[in-house]
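ugh finaly. both done.
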Amino acid sequence: MSTPAPENFGYYPQPRPRLSVDELPAAKNTRPIRSLDGLAADTFESDEEPAEFLAFAYAERRRDAA
């Protein structure tokens, strides 16, 4: 007994056009970064939270490695 072929057998998605490094930002409608202030984010509410986060992240890494 043979198994039926999948319906999309032989289907390959069309390749995306290759864009140069200079063409990619224009294709994504991106703008250059004018100031690092625009990248700043208020991620943590207090000065202690970054240290707590790093301690948690390191503990999780050690837990996963064990």
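ok and the 2nd:
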Amino acid sequence: MTAPTAPDHTTANHRTTPDATPGHPTVLVGHAELHAAVTGLFTGHGIPAARARLAADALCHGDLTGLDSHGVFNLTRLYLPLLESGRCDPRAEPRTLTDLGACATVDARRALGLWAAAEAMDDAVARARRHGIGLVSVRGATHLGCAGFHAARAAHTGMIGVVASNCGGQRIARPPGGAVTMLGTNPLSVAAPALDGHPFLLDMSTTVAPTGRVRVAARRGTPVPEGWLEDAAGEPVTDPNAFDRGEAFLRWLGGTSENGVHKGYGLGIAVELLAAVVSGSAVGPAPAALEGDGRPHGRDDDIGFFLLAIAPEVLRPDADVAATTRSLFGALTDCPPVPGGEPVRYPGWWEAERAARRRRHGIPLPEHLYRELADLGLLGTPGTGPGTGNGTAPNAGGRR
């Protein structure tokens, strides 16, 4: 089954082109070049080569799939400050604290979460091959990037992957009716094999939107949709800059009590239980949270991960699980759309389409982000035609 693809509004490598957002030009960069540049930057900060490549895989996943707020946009805003401040140890070697066969508890020891979460999921997959399920609970971690990247590692092996991550000691969102921020955005992801080349991939924050999407809007100078943010009195806010000024707060999925805010809030608490309480990492809703002034506070140190791999074919060796999942997702895509509507698809479909297209034709980076990376020595100056400026600039191994 195939579906029509939407254009990326981009053309040749390193060529300034109009973005899908009017008035915001982009520059196309080949995936291989961007990946090599990010890998070089991480190795230049002391991360071993194999783990630097894995971290680059995780970071560039956001740019490939269109989750731009979790791609290289975060390089200078999140990951380099973590490394340069010492809050992340580039040479950290995670230590297994408990190993019960099907499950384990691991101390990441401040390792870069981009690779540490991926290695932990691979460990969970190996355990699931033996036991039918594999659970790795991680504490002492740093930001893992897109939770879906790590869940999809299980799906690529034919398993179901579940990933949850809290935000350590960082508090961003208020409980419904509360006057003090107490929880993070607390992402949750589930992935599974589906139709060929299009795995099921649910990757979501438990707030209406993650902080990165608010900051992308602020950088572009565009308002956020009504319903993402609210002020201290609970009234809608559309100015994205109000978030970092401490004048606006993220809403939970559901938004209001009438529309089911308890569902997003409850999922946020569930992530704290799975990712933090199980692993022993920092917990957002702790007594220290009450010492805040109501605005976002705390730091995303000592993050907890929950990584679960489930192998249905090990649990049901006589069943054709792959045929069942193909039938399930095939039935969904065969559902007729409403008149004039797009084809019916499932979470992960359009992201897989976009990733395949961007691997072929390049990743459109906002021009300001491209120049930010060029100033780091990661990419050359954009040219005006196909292939111009292709290749990683000197000094790509570290900051200038």
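summary for the 2nd one i guess: The chain has a mean pLDDT of 90.
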